[in-house]
Write a structure and sequence with these properties.
alpha+beta; Alpha-Beta Plaits; 2 domains; eleven-stranded mixed beta sheet; 25% helix
């Protein structure tokens, strides 16, 4: 090979290996019933695995994604964001193609071109969850809510929930033996309400959540609603920072990730 050809191919390799990668955010939703959580698990089906597989097939290259959070097995998401990188400019056609490839329990909604360093997990400024309790037997809600037909004192549960609104250590509601470095969270809202179907909904928003945190909080607030523990007891549980102090976790099927917020300046364009 001549020297000129060597230089040409060297330059070509350099250019190809340094192609500008574009950062994309994808908004999606999923029913978590059939998945062992969002994050890839050995020998188990996950939401992340399915989405990476479908995107890789459509874009004809290996695509790795990063999610805004890691929902547990059986937990749902009405609004989740993921990010991935791709060298070419995409269009709204990707949403149509992806939805035709995805199973019926995962849906892609919106595609955004982002700031080059935007991160779906670390740049999120808040996350919101809803937990649904159905107070009566409902054949259409058994896999989407906690069927719980005992009377609850919602007023006391809301009074206790107010104690959660602070920046503090929520170790009492964290799953044990995880790899987190801190249990500090900034909880910005926490309250119960009823919807038009008579379901009880717990809404909570924070900058971040610990593993199993929302389900542990719900389970403990239900103990307050049943009169098994007092509001003062609930306050002490928070202060003790020990998982063994709190109540049992509520079932997974009632929990939904419903919102994730980011700084507006990270969004360059939404493809429509």
């Amino acid at each position: 090979m001549s020297e000129s050809k060597r230089i040409f191919f060297k330059r070509l390799y350099f250019c190809c290996s340094n192609l500008q990668q574009l950062r994309y955010f994808l908004e999606l939703a999923y029913n978590g019933k059939n998945y062992f959580g969002y994050q890839i698990q050995p020998n188990q089906i996950s939401v992340q695995e399915v989405i990476e597989d479908r995107l890789s097939k459509i874009l004809r290259k290996k695509i790795s994604i990063v999610g805004a959070g890691r929902t547990d097995s059986g937990v749902h998401a009405k609004k989740m964001f993921i990010h991935f990188d791709y060298e070419d400019e995409l269009s709204v056609d990707l949403i149509k193609k992806l939805n035709s490839f995805l199973p019926k329990d995962i849906a892609a909604y919106r595609l955004f071109l982002m700031d080059d360093e935007a991160h779906a997990r670390f740049d999120a400024t808040s996350r919101s969850y809803n937990y649904f309790i159905s107070p009566f037997k409902d054949p259409f809600a058994f896999d989407s809510a906690w069927i719980f037909n005992r009377e609850l004192d919602v007023e006391k549960m809301n009074e206790a929930a107010k104690l959660l609104i602070k920046q503090g250590d929520f170790g009492s509601f964290a799953k044990l033996h995880t790899d987190v470095k801190t249990n500090i969270c900034d909880v910005r809202e926490a309250f119960w309400r009823k919807n038009e179907n008579g379901q009880l909904i717990f809404q909570i928003t924070a900058d971040r959540f610990l593993r199993n945190m929302v389900r542990a909080i719900v389970g403990t607030l239900v103990e307050v609603g049943l009169g098994r523990i007092s509001i003062h007891d609930f306050e002490e549980i928070i202060e003790q920072k020990q998982r063994s102090s709190a109540g049992a976790s509520a079932p997974a099927q009632g929990l939904y990730l419903v919102d994730v917020q980011y700084p507006k300046e990270l969004f360059k364009n939404e493809f429509k």
